[in-house]
Amino acid sequence: MRADSCVPIGPQLRFNVSVMTYRIAEAAEILGVSDDTVRRWIDAGRLESKQEDGRAVVPAPALARTAVELAENPDREQTRAASVSARNRLAGIVVAVKKDTVMAQVELICGHYRIVSLMSSEAADELGLEPGVRAIASVKSTNVVVERP
């Protein structure tokens, strides 16, 4: 086999000596967005791509850079709560936050309901949760996830 030929690593992951690549759908799954969003980012120059066997693919280093960028500066319009059933989402306002070095207790008033969520202090800080801030409580079984709209 030639050094520049592709050697399969997984079901759809390709590796060649110079760089690994991901198909559009794979990149979208990794980034947690739709295929169309990845295509728009490529068209806008936000995400690098190249042609491989007639298909657009994303080089692994470019995908890694974009993943880090999204983790550090998430698109707030694309909250996890948007993918949860509306009956499990309660929009409200933060009325109290109690934090220590590890954990935070966040209290929200959502309509007629008082919701209390326990999360890491780091998560509460990243979300900017403090009294008066709008937030969404996503209820999943016995867990409550708090996000900013």
Give a short synopsis of this structure.
The chain is elongated and about 55 Å long. The mean pLDDT is 79.
Describe the SSE topology.
Layout: E1 7-8, E2 14-15, E3 20-23, H1 24-31, H2 35-44, E4 50-52, E5 55-59, H3 60-72, E6 89-99, E7 103-110, E8 113-120, H4 121-127, E9 134-140, E10 143-147
Antiparallel strand pairs: 1-2, 2-3, 3-5, 4-5, 6-7, 6-9, 7-8, 9-10
Helix pairs in contact: 1-2
The CATH C-level name of the largest domain is Mainly Alpha
* Biggest sheet record: 5 strands, antiparallel
- Give the CATH topology of the largest domain: Multidrug-efflux Transporter Regulator, Chain: A, Domain 2
Strand content: 35-45%
Number of helices: 4
Order of neighbouring strands in the sheet with most strands: 1-2-3-5-4
> Fraction of residues in helices?
25-40%
H and E string: EEEHHEEHEEEHEE
